[in-house]
Structures are given as structure tokens and as C-alpha cells.
Design brief:
8 helices; 63% helix
Length: 307
């Protein structure tokens, strides 16, 4: 009869004919409502064309039926006005950065107004945002400029790192080369020093052996034979390196040459360069050998003169 009587539960219900009549049927499921596209102006005076999707659910069927004439139309209009209001508080860049916070703000504003209608807004999603052509082109240019700037920065940093690496490599290579050269000089000097020491040691040992040999009677004969052999070998090498030759007055007199070399040795020995004997008996024996050798040399010289 035009008066609210009761809410029927799901299942079997009995109605009085003519007296009872079902006026409204409400679904308690979640409903998705398409919010039409509309224009909104941001805080920096940019006109946007924006639409979205609203998800809601009827909490109180009585209020949804008798609190508002058309709940779907009412909630759609409320979503549009709330969206325009929230967009007017933000700049264009903030709209894109804080899209999630914008959705939450719209849901809170709708729930405060739709509580009397028995409708709960679960979430609101912005579906599409369209910009004016010029603004869109300006944003594209800005994005491209930003990307070019980042690319230039990355390229310059890469060139800088490459030059630093090349310089560091050259510095390390020069350091290693200088260290290698220094070590080479040290090794070469050590080798030359060791060679000099070895040659000197060998020379000293050979001189010591020669001096010991000369201290015996047969040592002089061996020295004479060695000088004669060296004299012959030296004559074999004449005129091989150049055309200039210096010859003694009597090249065939090998005995005289040996006698002269022994005389030089004796003269040097008399000046104190001979090896000192180790005992008195060895000194006397060496003295007798020297006198004997001098007499032998004088005899040989007399024989050479006579010949």
C-alpha cells in the first residue's frame, strides 16, 4: 500500500496478495560502475580529460532504496565531482606521480558522502588521462631532452672512466718498465762484478800456481818452453789483421827471445815481486836455483854470440 513493511530474506517468502508488493530488488554483490569521461583543470591550469572505474557495494538495502532515488547515478555524479575537486589541488606532474594517492583520496571523499545511502565505495581506479596536444608534445620534448641529457652524462662518464683507466694503465706500465730496467741493470752489474771477481780469482790462482812452479828447478824450463811456443804462435798470426808488421831484428833467434824474457823476469824478481818462500831452507834452495839459472842464461848467451 506504499509503505515499507519488511526486507525479504533469500529463499522462500510468503506475500499477502494485493497488500504486499516487492518494490526494490538490491544486489549485495560488488558492482563496477563506469565513470564517464570528463574535463578537469589542475592547479597549474592544465586541462585534462579523465575517466575511471568505480567499485562499490550496497551495505544497507533499505537506505540504498529509500535514501536516494537512483543510487548508481548519484554515486557516479559524486565520483565525478570529487575527482574534479581532487585534481584541482594537484599539479600535472603530481597527477602522474601520485596516481595511487589520488585514487585513495577520491574513495575517502565518496565514502563520507555515500554513508547515508547505505553504499560503500571499495576503490576507484583512474583508467585514462588525456592531455591537450600541445601539452603532450611539450611533455614528449621534455622526456626526450631528459633522456638525451642522461645519455650525454653517461657517455661523458664513460669517456672519463676510459681515460682514467688508460692513464692508470700507462702509469703502471711505466712503473713496471722502470722497475724491470732497474732490475736488469742490477742483475747485469751483479753478473759483471761476479765475472770480474771470477776472472781475478782465476788469474790469482794461475799466478799462484805459476809462482809455485817457478820455485822448482824444472819450472824455468817449462816457462822457457811456453814462451817459445807463444813466440811461434804469434808469428803465425802476423799480417792477418792488417798490413803493418813490427818484426824483431832477428826473427829466427827464438833462444835469444826466451833469454830476454827470462832476464826481464829475473829483474822483476830482484825488485821484490817474486813470491816469498815459506821457510829458510826453501829460501836457500830458491837462491841456488836463481844463481844456477843465471849461469845457464849467461852460458846460453855466450853460445848465441858465438854462433
Amino acid at each position: 500500500m506504499g509503505r515499507f513493511h519488511r526486507i525479504l530474506d533469500p529463499g522462500l517468502n510468503i506475500l499477502v496478495p494485493v497488500a504486499d508488493k516487492i518494490k526494490y530488488v538490491q544486489s549485495l554483490k560488488e558492482i563496477a560502475i563506469d565513470v564517464p569521461k570528463q574535463s578537469a583543470i589542475t592547479s597549474d591550469n592544465v586541462t585534462l580529460s579523465i575517466d575511471g572505474v568505480l567499485y562499490l557495494r550496497i551495505i544497507d538495502p533499505y537506505r540504498a532504496s529509500y535514501g536516494v532515488e537512483d543510487p548508481e547515478f548519484a554515486i557516479t555524479q559524486l565520483a565525478q565531482t570529487t575527482m574534479r575537486s581532487e585534481l584541482g589541488k594537484m599539479s600535472l606532474d603530481k597527477v602522474f606521480r601520485e596516481r595511487e594517492s589520488l585514487n585513495v583520496s577520491i574513495v575517502d571523499s565518496i565514502n563520507k558522502a555515500s554513508e547515508a545511502w547505505g553504499i560503500a565505495c571499495l576503490r576507484y581506479e583512474i583508467r585514462d588521462i588525456r592531455l591537450p596536444t600541445r601539452v603532450h608534445e611539450a611533455m614528449q620534448m621534455q622526456v626526450e631532452a631528459e633522456r638525451r641529457k642522461r645519455a650525454a652524462i653517461l657517455e661523458s662518464e664513460g669517456v672519463r672512466e676510459a681515460e682514467i683507466n688508460i692513464a692508470e694503465g700507462k702509469r703502471k706500465s711505466r712503473i713496471l718498465a722502470s722497475e724491470a730496467e732497474r732490475q736488469e741493470h742490477i742483475n747485469k752489474a751483479s753478473g759483471e762484478a761476479a765475472a770480474i771477481i771470477a776472472v781475478a780469482d782465476a788469474r790469482a790462482r794461475s799466478l799462484q800456481a805459476i809462482s809455485k812452479s817457478l820455485a822448482h828447478t824444472d819450472g824455468r824450463n817449462a816457462a822457457s818452453l811456453t814462451l817459445a811456443e807463444q813466440y811461434i804462435v804469434a808469428f803465425e798470426k802476423l799480417a792477418k789483421s792488417n798490413n803493418t808488421m813490427i818484426l824483431p831484428s832477428n826473427p829466427g833467434d827464438v833462444t835469444g827471445l826466451v833469454a830476454q824474457a827470462l832476464a826481464v823476469y829475473n829483474a822483476v824478481s830482484k825488485q821484490g815481486f817474486a813470491l816469498p818462500p815459506q821457510s829458510n831452507e826453501q829460501q836457500q834452495h830458491l837462491k841456488k836455483n836463481v844463481e844456477y839459472n843465471q849461469l845457464s842464461e849467461e852460458k846460453n848467451a855466450v853460445k848465441i854470440n858465438i854462433e
